[in-house]
Amino acid sequence: LAFVEVFDGSTSKTIQLITEDLIMIDSLRVVCIGSSISITGKVTKHPTKDDVEVKIIEIYHIGKIADPMT
To answer: CA separation (Å) from 3 to 11, 16, 48, 69?
Structure first.
């Protein structure tokens, strides 16, 4: 199970992405602060918070940051 907290700029809040797919989890390992991704997913109610989360169906890497410290 993997969780990704994203900020899309449309609001001051972040949204949580989740997946249990091992291939997708492996592809998320290269995502770091400043990376650009596009997600297709299903919006669902968070099980314990009064909020929503997105279950990832597909992920597309648009722009990767080689070294987030530079």
So the answer is: 20, 7, 15, 22
Distance between CA atoms of 16 and 41, rounded to whole angstroms?
11
Q: Is the pTM of this model over 0.90?
A: no
DSSP 3-state of 58: strand
Cβ partners under 8 Å of residue 57, min gap 6:
39, 40, 41, 42
User: What was the pLDDT predicted at 43?
Assistant: 94
- Residue 21 burial (CB count, 10 A): 15
Cα separation of 3 and 56, whole Å?
Answer: 10
Q: Is 28 in contact with 21 (CB distance < 8 Å)?
A: no
